[in-house]
């Protein structure tokens, strides 16, 4: 795939799914354009998926020799990492060529996290009298209860729900399967949604998909982003909220309760525990004194 088409799709991703401002989007694209210019100067003919670690190291050395400040170098590296995270999200590459690249250590930006109360406020803004109300409530409960990626949510199958055992079978990145616990609260909301779902005329091929749109087909990722963002606004939440915020909140609340990082890693489907360690940003004294040891959605009576 050529650079121009990929950049156009990446621009749409930053606007629709990340909700970035025009200036922020331009800054991200500018970082990638610098890499493209370097490749052209060095007469390296490759698309985004063909760039390797060594070429990126040489590019970083090149911009350093140009006299860019350490902060500018760090910002460009951050832009490259964001771009290749997107490429991986789209499953166009098997590994991240920026994973081992190092730049000036200017601190790590922590992910946005919702409190349990904020999640309850969002759920409380769902209009259950509308046709999609039960679906949206079940969908958000599953997002928070299981910490799923949005791509995993829209692909979730009814036959992947193991009620007796209290687990979902999730097909994650790289077609890797994992089992994720699901709360009784989320299962209850699914049960309340199913009669409406089963009464629909379902599109061929989507008969086993759990969450459907009004036309009987599976939901798009953009639609899930829109639903979540509108509910956050309705609940008066000023944070930048997306479906991934529920995944961050799921992980953070588990770590708050003292859950083992490797257990959280397994539930999130992270390849490396280093990715999971971002959720340990909370004060250690608070962690030691935490009284919960399970997901906040799982009540004592469910243990």
Structure characterization notes:
The chain has 303 residues and is mostly helical. It has two domains: 3-89, DNA polymerase, domain 1 (Orthogonal Bundle), CATH 1.10.150.130; 116-302, Intergrase catalytic core (hpI Integrase, Chain A, Orthogonal Bundle). Helix content is 51%, strand content 4%. The protein is built from 13 helices and three strands, in the order H-H-H-H-H-H-H-E-E-E-H-H-H-H-H-H. It has a three-stranded antiparallel β-sheet with strand order 1-2-3. The longest helix is centred in the N-terminal third of the chain and has 20 residues, at 22-41. The model is unreliable at 281-294 and 299-303 (pLDDT under 50).
- Major sheet summary line: 3 strands, antiparallel
- Poorly predicted regions are 281-294, 299-303
Shape from CA axes? elongated
Instruction: Using the 3D structure, state the CATH architecture of the largest domain.
Output: Orthogonal Bundle
Total count of strands: 3
Oligomer: single chain
Number of domains: 2
Count of helix runs:
13
CATH superfamily of the largest domain: Intergrase catalytic core
**Head-to-tail CA distance between termini:** 50 Å
Provide the structure class. Answer: mainly alpha
Global Rg: 21 Å
CATH topological fold name of the largest domain:
hpI Integrase, Chain A
Q: Which strands sit side by side, in order, in the main sheet? A: 1-2-3
């Amino acid at each position: 795939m050529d650079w121009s088409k990929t950049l156009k799709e990446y621009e749409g991703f930053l606007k629709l799914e990340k909700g970035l401002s025009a200036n922020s989007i331009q800054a991200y694209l500018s970082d990638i354009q610098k890499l493209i210019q370097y490749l052209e100067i060095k007469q390296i003919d490759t698309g985004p998926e063909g760039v390797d670690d060594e070429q990126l190291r040489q590019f970083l050395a090149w911009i350093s020799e140009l006299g860019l400040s350490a902060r500018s170098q760090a910002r460009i590296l951050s832009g490259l990492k964001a771009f290749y995270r997107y490429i991986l999200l789209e499953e166009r590459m098997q590994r991240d060529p920026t994973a081992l690249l190092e730049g000036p250590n200017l601190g790590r930006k922590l992910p946005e996290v919702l409190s349990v109360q904020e999640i309850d406020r969002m759920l409380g803004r769902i209009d259950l009298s509308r046709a999609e109300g039960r679906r949206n409530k079940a969908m958000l409960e599953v997002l928070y209860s299981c910490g799923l990626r949005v791509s995993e949510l829209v692909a979730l199958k009814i036959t992947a729900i193991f009620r007796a055992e209290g687990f979902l079978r999730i097909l994650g990145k790289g077609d890797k399967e994992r089992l994720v616990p699901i709360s009784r609260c989320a299962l209850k909301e699914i049960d309340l949604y199913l009669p409406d779902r089963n009464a629909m005329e379902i599109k061929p091929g989507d008969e086993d998909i759990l969450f459907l749109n009004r036309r009987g087909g599976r939901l798009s990722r953009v639609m899930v982003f829109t639903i979540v963002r509108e509910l956050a606004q309705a609940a008066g939440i000023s944070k930048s909220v997306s479906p991934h915020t529920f995944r961050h909140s799921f992980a953070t609340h588990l770590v708050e309760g003292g859950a083992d990082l490797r257990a959280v890693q397994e539930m999130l489907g992270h390849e490396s525990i280093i990715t999971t360690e971002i959720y340990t940003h909370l004060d250690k004294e608070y962690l030691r004194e935490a009284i919960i040891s399970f997901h906040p959605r799982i009540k004592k009576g469910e243990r």
